[in-house]
Amino acid sequence: MAAITNDHIQIQPKFRPVATLLSLALLPLSGFATDVYVPSLPGMAAALQVSSLQVQFTITLFLVSYGLSQLFIGSILDSYGRYRIGVASLLLFALASITIAVTHSIMVIYLMRIIQGITIGAAIAGKRAYFVDVFTGDRLKHYLSLFSIIWSTGPIIAPFVGGWLQTLFGWEANFYLLAIVGAVFALLELLFSGETLPQAAPFRLKQVVQVYGTMLRTGPFILGITLLGLAYSMVMVYNMTGAFIIEHHLQLSVVTAGYCSLVLGAAWMVGGFISKAMIRQSFFRKLSVNTGLQLLFAVLMLAAVRITDNLYILVAFAFLIHVGAGFTFNNYMTFCLTRFPGNAGVASGLTGGLTFMIVSALSYGIVQVLPAQDGVHLGESYLLLILLSMLVMFLAFREETTERRRMALS
Fold it and tell me: Where does the Major facilitator superfamily (MFS) profile domain start and stop, copy by copy (predicted)?
């Protein structure tokens, strides 16, 4: 099957800076689409007359579909381009958001969240590939090191906005906002963006399978993706439980829950900035120190919350742990996306897809075992994820060392 050419919709040189800004601005949309209604989860459960686990499952469905879509979209992006698929995805995302806002059926919401995950997965995978298409060398590393920093603006802004929307207009307002955001981005893409795929590769299933096989057999790449999933799971476990702990257990307001999510979103950004500042430091050493500090903070958090059930203690230790998670994520996102520059779409899709499959499985599994009860359960969730991260990081370091020795001998 021949690939479709996109010569007539190439980005005009005068619009290239605007197209780059648009690509960066779209990166936080996946986090924004989840976190904007995190403060509304208890309100949604009450309005829809369903359990807390049922509304938490809307997040899991988004993450699963977001991850699955990226697993398969990469080869399509490398064959048929990024532009048309991205614009169509944003429009479908907007329609799904409106549907969620006007329905009060949890089953319809489940279906629309799946559609949102698929469409955002396609749009974001294309935008990550955009930078590998357009930039090289230090310039490319500069932009890739900004990914988690810029992505974190979603978790920072979204819960704050969502908390106020919930208070003023109800949970539906969050999804009307998502519809507007999707439609506006689609319009801007039509006006200023275009195709960046350097050369479309014909879609041949055998070759596609070989590319996927090569990547999946590359130990450091897969272990790096696993660490991305573990890092973001720390954030997602809080997103799924924090509002219930603050609003139900601590008896505080939805706006307070929104402010706390804003603070923890800022923590992820701080971790990204620290990672960018240390970009030339020893990769393995800085990550080992970072994970060791996370372990210390998790142990201290568990000791503190057992003594006193206090919002400030809860958020302070969570902040420090999320800084470490952002640091790990930034380092390994750059590592994974630059591993296979010749197949940027597939690498981007696999990185994003597998990461969010890991996140969806881990976060929902942990919430089932350690439900949104109190700070002790949250601290235990962090500790479990950090210990798993230490194990995977050890395996990743050993695999990378083995691979370097093998290359040196050959």
Answer: 19-404
